[in-house]
Amino acid sequence: MDLGLFMQPLHNPERSITDMLAEDRQAAILADKLGYAEVWVGEHYSSSIEPIVNPLQFFASLIDVTANIKFATGVLALPQHHPAKIAGDVAQFDHLSRGRLIMGIGPGGLASDFELFGIMDKNRADMLVDSIDIIHRIWASDAPYDIKGKYWHVKIEETVVPKLGFGPMAKPYQKPYPEVAISAMTPNSGSARQAGLHGWGFASANFIQDCWVKSHWEQYVIGSEQAGRKPDRKKWRVARSILVTDTDAEAAEYLASEGNAYRWYYDFVLDDMRTYDILPVLKRDPSMSDEEVTLKYCMDTMIIAGSPASVLDQLVALVDYLGGPFGTLLQGFKEWDKPALQQNSMRLLAQDVMPKLRDYCASKAAAA
Fold first, then answer.
1. How far apart are CA 103 and CA 58, in angstroms?
2. CA-based, 20 to 30 A from 337: which of 11, 139, 245, 291?
3. Percent of the chain residues past pLDDT 70, beyond the cut
4. Which sign does the torsion angle of CA 10, 14, 15, 17 carry?
5. Residues contacting residue 199 through CB under 8 Å, at least 6 positions apart
6. DSSP string, 112-163
7. Residues 6+ apart with CB under 8 A from 198
8. Is the Cβ–Cβ distance between 224 and 293 less than 8 Å?
9. Which residues pair with residue 244 across a beta bridge?
10. CA distances, 40 to each of 9, 36, 62, 76, 103 (Å)
11. Closest alpha carbon to 105 in 122, 87, 118
12. What's the pLDDT tens digit per position in 137-175?
């Protein structure tokens, strides 16, 4: 099992964007030094709380200061962009990073971005499939191009001038193209089923209950079987909020402190889910009333915290609950309100917890 870092990222909007971006870069650089396999960063054009507009641009600033970590867009909201632009941007980044790219895609998740790009009432799931199909067809062909999709038309015919190099579009460094992955959040996610249908990887969000994470695998299996493809658990990434401290008492004291980053994070998530009427993702029992979904409930049920030994026990229980090992555990990034504590959490997870968790997963695989 690999270890990765899932960064939306969420920040207190009272901070400057300059400071937010600097902290995000520091987290990614530390993750690389600690041997994390992946770092995921989202795309949000109209948010003061999720400040990274272009994850590829952000990642470009990290290529030369990291060694091995793969850069995963989490996600490129394809309905918001022309497929030809994404095809060019991704191909260029893939070359710059020498193939250290995972192409995370999605239909988008921010209503203000939908309004901004005029896609509020569009079938964004359908647009997603159309876009990635066009992108792959661009990469699989040479100029001239005449690729007709349902929502876009890519055409370069009359202006192709071979002797001047005009017309051809760049192909990625990875052949035939970078791994495609999609994010999944809702119960019995259609995105997870879509991943199975197309053979994509998928990542389950860290701000939902474990039962809905489990439902993602079930939907992925359905999609895989519909496509006649064997489900591959290595393609499954599971994001969780994880805090590792030297002792259980240290974790409990921090999480009980007023305004700590985890408390702020789940307070935002709770407000967001209420605003858009999607509280069910926060409920372990669908019969719960909305009033029962409190901040304390969210923190008690969605944060894995404690000493390395305690966190290992909780992660082993998670692996068992989800039916066995999966491809990558993604630690959910939280703002560094106490940098020494958060950085130590990453170190302890990578160096103390993961080796033992990998041993456990290997024993499970051997016994299967």
1. 14
2. 291
3. 100
4. positive
5. 224, 227, 229
6. HHHHHTT-TTS-HHHHHHHHHHHHHHHHT--SSEEEE-SS-EEEE-TT-BGG
7. 129, 180, 223, 227
8. no
9. 306
10. 9, 11, 13, 11, 10
11. 87
12. 999 999 999 999 999 999 999 999 999 999 999 999 999
Amino acid in position 228: G
At residue 192, what is the residue type? A
Q: What pTM was estimated for this model as a whole?
A: 0.97
Residue 153: half-sphere exposure toward Cβ, Cα within 13 Å = 5
Supply the pLDDT for residue 367: 85
Number of H helices and number of E strands within the chain? 13, 12
The secondary structure element, H or E, covering residue 13 is none
Distance from C-alpha of 175 to C-alpha of 94, rounded to nearest angstrom = 10
For 184-190, what is the mean pLDDT?
Answer: 95
DSSP states of 247-301 as a string? SHHHHHHHHHSTT-HHHHHHHHHHHHHHHTT-GGGG-SSTTS-GGG--HHHHHHH
Own/partner contacts of 52-58, CB < 8 Å, gap of 24 or more, are 52/9, 52/21, 52/24, 56/89, 56/90, 56/93, 58/21, 58/24, 58/25
Residue 368 has pLDDT above 80, yes or no: no
